[in-house]
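Run: sequence + iron/sulfur cluster -> complex structure.
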Amino acid sequence: MPQYMKEPNNPMPKEWLASEHSLQKIASYKPFNFVDGEGVRCSLYVSGCLFNCPGCYNVVAQNFNYGHEYTQELEDQIIEDLSQSYVQGLTLLGGEPFLNTQVCLKLLKRIRKEFGDTKDVWSWTGYKWDELMQESDDKLEMLSYVDILIDGRFLEAKKDLTLQFRGSSNQNIIDVKKSLAQDKVVIWDKLVK
Ligand code: SF4
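>> structure
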């Protein structure tokens, strides 16, 4: 099939479960960056994704066995880095964070315990918002700890490098708390483009 006709995979609700796929591995950790969301952020790239988007920005991290194990030492380092006053929050990327809920939930619960809502959480996902709403309990629990979600597969046909924090125009920057409260997608109120 020609490259331009390829499409990402489209799972049925609850078809992919972290419990069946995640090896709880980390592709990389990048503290104190300015590119993965608003403000200064610490970014955790988890390993493993099944969407297989043509043109994926991080192909190596599609492999669930890529990288290294998530350790208590790394978690402690992330918490220490986040405690710096100039750090706005944590960003989860991948790979697919929602197929690594074991790692992400453990970390997010600790962040809320130690920092309350003084640090925000951004997460990327290949799932669309409406798909996530039909997903497994672990994914929905994880979503409840996220402030901003960038949703949807990367689609080469809709690629646009001028967009804020997104690679293609089908993706949205979603205010999670407002969306859950209003039971509809509410776009981030700081969206410029
Ligand atoms: S959802 Fe993201 S990480 Fe997964 S294949 Fe698509 S672009 Fe790559």
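>> summary
The beta strands are 25-33, 40-46, 68-69, 87-93, 120-124, 148-151, 172-175. The pocket of iron/sulfur cluster is lined by residues 8, 49, 51-53, 56-58, 62, 94-96, 126, 153-154 (CB under 6 Å).
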